[in-house]
Design goal:
Elements: H1 2-11, E1 14-17, E2 21-24, H2 40-60, H3 64-82, H4 88-100, H5 105-116, H6 121-130, H7 133-151, H8 155-174, H9 180-183
Antiparallel strand pairs: 1-2
GO molecular function, one term: DNA binding
Keywords: DNA-binding, Transcription, Transcription regulation
Protein name: FCD domain protein
């Protein structure tokens, strides 16, 4: 329901006033924004499936230079967050570098395209509601767990850490949606022990 209201707000059909309610906008026939992108929640589910396997593949070849590239991406996230910016560039770089470790250009492109769905109007609006410095600090910690598992060459732990990260991302987006955790759950939040 919350995602539907946000979509209606992005399209200009309703105005959500915090503490007051939801108001229908003028139905004058004025052009509305078009939402053709997939649901942000479906995008996270797709990423969970693909990126978990990519993290496992990355753990098969944890060359120090490649692991350093992952650490550099997380460092960029920390720098962006520390400067008061949403650390999207460093976040994107981290996920692309994990994909690059699989040596498959198609998968790198797919991960980039799925990540870039964050820029569709509905995803941006969801981010406005649910992203904050604390949530980004948690995401950075989750990224470091992925890196630790990859650097150790532990495929199972790398897969579990990436699944954990994307499950937590899903949970952050759905935290205030009644019933979402039960009806749309993508996986257990706990990473497997390595």
């Amino acid at each position: 329901m919350r995602e539907a209201l946000i979509a209606l707000e992005v399209e200009g059909w309703v105005e959500v006033r915090m503490g007051s309610g939801v108001y229908v906008q003028s139905l004058s026939g004025a052009p509305r924004a078009s939402l053709t992108a997939e649901s942000p929640l479906e995008t996270i589910r797709a990423r969970w499936t693909i990126e978990g396997e990519l993290a496992a593949q990355a753990a098969r070849n944890p060359a120090p230079a490649l692991v350093d590239g992952l650490l550099e991406a997380v460092g960029a996230m920390e720098d962006e967050a520390g400067a008061g910016f949403v650390p999207i560039r460093g976040d994107r770089l981290f996920h692309l570098r994990v994909a690059e470790m699989a040596n498959n250009a198609v998968l790198v492109r797919v991960v980039g395209e799925l990540f870039d769905e964050r820029h569709n109007p509905l995803s941006v609006k969801l981010g406005d509601y649910f992203e904050n410095p604390d949530s980004w600090a948690v995401a950075i910690t989750e990224h470091r767990r992925v890196i630790t598992a990859i650097a150790a060459g532990d495929e199972g732990a790398a897969r579990a850490a990436m699944h954990h990260h994307l499950s937590c991302s899903f949970d952050r987006l759905t935290a205030s949606w009644p019933g979402a955790a039960e009806t749309m759950r993508i996986d257990s939040k706990e990473p497997a022990a390595s």
